[in-house]
Write a structure and sequence with these properties.
Length: about 725
C-alpha cells in the first residue's frame, strides 16, 4: 500500500504572512547536549550571556550545564555539575562576573564546596557560584533544614554582590537569623505539613548567611467538614527583585489565609478556598517588600482573584518581578478567570474561553503597582494557555526607557497583537509601553524559541531564551528577522538538522512580499525563489516556498560531510547570517493535521482502504495505516537526491520503528509492525512514507498515540483515529 496524499507538498508549505515588525530578532542555537533543555538566562556587564539547563551525560545521568556565550551568541565555555537529580530554577551574574545558580536537589552526592550547610533532609535548595570563565565551582551549599523539604526558586544580587535567594520550606529548622522578620517556621500538625516561603541573603563569597527569614502562615481556608482535616497553609516565593538600595521585593503563590499583610495594600484577604477531599486549593499571589538589611517588612499584600468560579480556577501564580526607576513593581505569571483587571486593559476578558468547558482555564497576566502596593497602575491578561509548553508570562524586564518586555507562551490568536507582529508560533517576546496600554513591538516564534527568560544587554537590547537552546537576540541593522528554524512537521525549533530534512524558517522580511511556491525545473526543485536562497555550509537548499515570514527548504545531503551546518539566508534586502546547527543522523517528525500538538495531534494518514483517517472515518484494529514524515536522514541510494521527485523506492539508512505510545493495547506490543518505510512516490525526496499495522486489540482507545523512531531519534507523538 504505497499511496500518497494529493497535495502533501502544499500541506508542508502552509504559511503565515503578515507585515513586518520593527525588531530584528535573530536566532542563535546552542549545542545543549543529549536530552537537553535550557531554562535560565543571565548576562554580564560585557554583554556575554550565561545559559543554564539540564543535559543527559553519556553515563545516562542528568547534569546541570552552564554555557557562556559572547554577545553574538557564540559559545565560548561550558561547565557541568550535579548529583544526578537536580533542578535549576534561577540564575544571575554578580558584579565580579561570577554566575550564581539556585535550584532544588534530591541528590545525596550533590557537589559541595565550602558549604554553609552540608546536611539536610532528602530535598533541599542549593546555591552554586561558578567563576566567570566557567572553570570551577567557587562555592556550593545546600539550603534547607533537617525536618522537611526545601526548594530554592529564584535569585538576585545587589550592587555589592550579596546573593538573595527565595523559595519554600516545610522544615521548621530552616536556617533563619536572630531578629529576622519571622523566625517561627512551619510546624507540622496532626493533619498536614505547612509550607512557608523564605528569603535568605548570603555574602558575596558564600562565607555567611547575612539575613534569613520565613514568610508564611499555617492557616488555610476550607469549606468545612472532612476537607478541613488536611487544610494547611502553603506559601512559595518564586520571584525576587532587588533595587539599588538593597531593598527587595519577593512574590509567589499562597493558599495561607493569615499572611502578614500590611494595612492599606491592594489585597487584604487571600480570597483562597479549598474544594474536595483531598482539598484542591485556589491560591492567591502575594508580594512583600523588605527594607535594606532585611529585618523590616515595608509592606506585604495578597494579589488575589476578584472572584472564584467553583471547581474551575487555580488562582494566581507570580513567576517574575521587576522594579523600575520609579520603584514601581511590575510582575507577571499565570491567572485564572476572575483576575483584577484595570480600565483600558489590553485584555480585559479572560482569554481561555468558558472555564467550565474543556477550554483552558488559565492565562498569562502582567500588572504594575505603585511603590507601596496600594493601587494598580495597570493589570491585564496577556495570552492563553499552551498545553505542553511554558505558558503565561514567564519572564519580564524593564528597558532603559521604562518600557516593559515580556516573554512566555500563548496560543498566538489569544495574544491580540497588532498586525505588525507576525503570529509565527506559541512563544513570544513583546514590548509594552510603560503604562501597559500599548504593544510597541516584539515577535512571536515557534515553540522552544523563546518563553523561558528575558534579559537586557548593557547596550539596552533584549535577549530571550527558549527551551530548545534557542537564544533570540535583537541585532540591529539586519536585513531580516529570523525567529526560528524547525522541522516542517515538528512541534518546536531544534538546534539540529538531518540530511534531506524539510525545515521551515520563520521570521520577518525573509522573502518576497508576494509569496512564491517551489517549481520543478529539469526534474529538480529550484534553489532560488523570488530572489531568496537558503545556504547550508554555502550549499543552496531546494526551496518549497518563500514568503515574507516563512521559507520552507530541504536540507542538502552535503551537510553529512561535517558535524555542523552554518545557515545563511539571502533575502531581497541582503544576506542574513543565521545560526550554526548541529548535524544529526535523523530527526523524524510526522506530518499532522493543522498545527502539531505536543500531546499528539492527528496525523495526516490513510486507512488501509485508501481513505483519509479521521474522527468520522476510523481505522480498524489490526489494519494498515499510512503516515508521512520527514527528518529520516540519508537513504540507501548511491547518488544525491537533493530536490528530486521520488520515483525509486529508497529506504532510510537507519532502522525505522513505530512505537505505540498509548500503553493501551491489550497485546502489550509497543513496537508496531512496519511494512514499508521509504520514499513517498510522487513526492519530494525528504518526505518518507511509513506503512504500519495497528495492534489487533485496543482497549478504550479513540486516538492511538504513536511515535516514529528512526535510528536513535524519536519523533513527537502523533495519533491515529481507531475503532475499538
Amino acid at each position: 500500500m504505497r499511496n500518497s496524499v494529493r497535495g502533501l507538498l502544499l500541506f508542508v508549505s502552509v504559511v503565515v504572512s503578515v507585515t513586518a515588525g520593527s525588531n530584528q530578532f535573530v536566532a542563535r542555537y546552542l549545542q545543549v547536549g543529549a536530552a537537553g533543555s535550557t531554562d535560565l538566562l543571565a548576562v554580564d556587564a560585557s554583554g556575554n550571556f550565561f545559559i543554564v539547563g539540564t543535559v543527559q551525560e553519556p553515563s545516562g545521568l542528568p547534569q546541570i550545564r552552564a554555557i557562556k556565550t559572547d554577545p553574538q551568541g557564540n559559545a565560548i565555555a561550558s561547565f557541568d555539575f550535579g548529583g544526578g537529580s537536580d533542578f535549576p530554577s534561577g540564575a544571575v551574574v554578580d558584579p565580579q562576573g561570577n554566575l550564581v545558580i539556585v535550584g532544588t536537589t534530591y541528590s545525596q552526592d550533590f557537589p559541595l564546596v565550602s558549604p554553609l550547610i552540608s546536611t539536610t533532609t532528602g530535598q533541599a535548595g542549593f546555591v552554586v557560584q561558578l567563576d566567570a570563565q566557567l572553570t570551577k565551582i567557587v562555592f556550593s551549599t545546600l539550603l534547607g533544614g533537617n525536618r522537611g523539604a526545601s526548594s530554592a526558586n529564584a535569585v538576585a544580587v545587589d550592587t555589592a554582590g550579596n546573593i538573595y535567594v527565595v523559595g519554600s520550606t516545610a522544615s521548621p529548622d530552616f536556617p533563619v537569623t536572630p531578629g529576622a522578620f519571622q523566625t517561627a517556621g512551619p510546624t507540622p500538625t496532626g493533619f498536614g505539613f505547612p509550607v512557608y516561603a523564605f528569603a535568605t541573603e548570603i555574602s558575596p563569597n558564600g562565607s555567611s548567611i547575612i539575613y534569613s527569614t520565613f514568610f508564611g502562615s499555617a492557616s488555610a481556608a476550607c469549606d468545612g467538614g472532612s476537607s478541613c482535616l488536611g487544610a494547611v497553609g502553603g506559601t512559595s516565593a518564586t520571584a525576587i527583585s532587588v533595587d539599588g538600595t538593597g531593598a527587595f521585593v519577593i512574590g509567589g503563590k499562597t493558599n495561607a489565609t493569615q499572611l502578614p499583610v500590611t494595612p492599606g495594600t491592594l489585597g487584604q484577604q487571600c480570597n483562597c478556598t479549598s474544594m474536595g477531599d483531598p482539598p484542591l486549593y485556589v491560591q492567591s499571589g502575594f508580594l512583600a517588600k523588605f527594607a535594606t538589611g532585611g529585618q523590616q517588612l515595608d509592606w506585604a499584600t495578597y494579589i488575589p482573584l476578584a472572584q472564584i468560579g467553583y471547581g474551575t480556577d487555580f488562582g494566581i501564580s507570580i513567576a517574575t518581578i521587576a522594579i523600575d526607576a520609579q520603584e514601581h513593581i511590575i510582575f507577571g505569571g499565570g491567572a485564572s478567570s476572575g483576575l483584577v483587571v484595570t480600565n483600558g486593559a489590553l485584555q480585559s476578558a479572560f482569554p481561555g474561553g468558558n472555564p467550565s468547558s474543556s477550554n483552558p482555564t488559565d492565562a498569562g497576566f502582567v500588572a504594575k503597582v505603585d511603590p507601596l502596593a496600594k493601587s494598580y497602575l495597570f493589570s491585564t491578561y496577556f495570552g492563553a494557555l499552551v498545553f505542553g509548553f511554558p505558558s503565561g508570562v514567564t519572564g519580564l524586564a524593564v528597558d532603559p526607557q521604562g518600557d516593559i518586555w515580556l516573554t512566555g507562551g500563548s496560543t498566538p490568536a489569544a495574544l491580540l497583537l497588532p498586525g505588525s507582529i507576525p503570529l509565527l508560533g506559541d512563544s513570544f517576546v513583546v514590548e509594552l509601553s510603560a503604562d501597559g496600554s500599548t504593544v510597541l513591538g516584539g515577535t512571536t516564534a515557534p515553540a522552544g524559541a523563546a518563553g523561558q527568560a528575558i534579559v537586557f544587554t548593557p547596550n539596552g537590547l533584549p535577549a530571550a531564551l527558549g527551551t530548545a537552546g534557542s537564544l533570540l537576540l535583537d541585532l540591529p541593522d539586519q536585513p531580516a528577522s529570523l525567529a526560528g528554524i524547525a522541522n516542517s512537521a515538528g512541534i518546536q525549533v531544534s538546534s539540529g538538522v538531518a540530511p534531506y530534512e524539510l525545515v521551515s524558517l520563520y521570521g520577518v522580511g525573509l522573502g518576497p512580499a508576494t509569496a512564491v511556491s517551489g517549481q520543478i525545473v529539469n526534474g529538480l526543485l529550484e534553489t532560488s525563489l523570488g530572489g531568496v536562497q537558503v545556504l547550508f555550509n554555502n550549499v543552496a537548499a531546494p526551496l518549497l516556498y518563500a514568503g515574507p515570514n516563512q521559507i520552507n527548504a530541504i536540507v542538502p545531503s552535503s551537510v553529512s560531510d561535517g558535524s555542523t551546518a552554518s545557515v545563511q539566508v539571502v533575502t531581497p534586502n541582503g544576506t542574513l547570517n543565521g545560526p550554526t546547527l548541529s548535524v544529526v543522523p535523523s530527526e523524524p517528525e510526522v506530518f499532522q493535521n493543522g498545527p502539531p500538538m505536543p500531546a499528539g495531534g492527528s496525523a495526516v494518514a490513510l486507512n488501509q482502504d485508501g481513505s483519509v483517517n479521521s474522527g468520522s472515518n476510523l481505522a480498524a484494529p489490526g489494519s494498515i495505516v499510512t503516515v508521512w514524515a520527514t527528518g529520516a536522514g540519508l537513504d540507501n541510494s548511491t547518488f544525491d537526491q537533493n530536490g528530486l521527485i521520488a520515483t525509486s523506492l529508497f529506504s532510510p539508512q537507519l532502522p525505522v520503528s513505530v512505537l505505540d505510545a498509548s500503553n493501551a493495547n491489550v497485546d502489550g506490543v509497543y513496537s508496531l509492525e512496519v511494512l514499508y518505510a521509504g520514499n513517498a512516490p510522487g513526492l519530494i525526496t525528504g518526505v518518507i512514507q511509513v506503512n504500519f499495522r495497528l495492534p489487533e486489540n485496543l482497549f478504550d482507545v479513540y486516538q492511538l498515540a504513536c511515535q516514529l523512531q528512526i535510528g536513535p531519534a524519536v519523533s513527537s507523538r502523533f495519533s491515529i483515529y481507531t475503532a475499538q
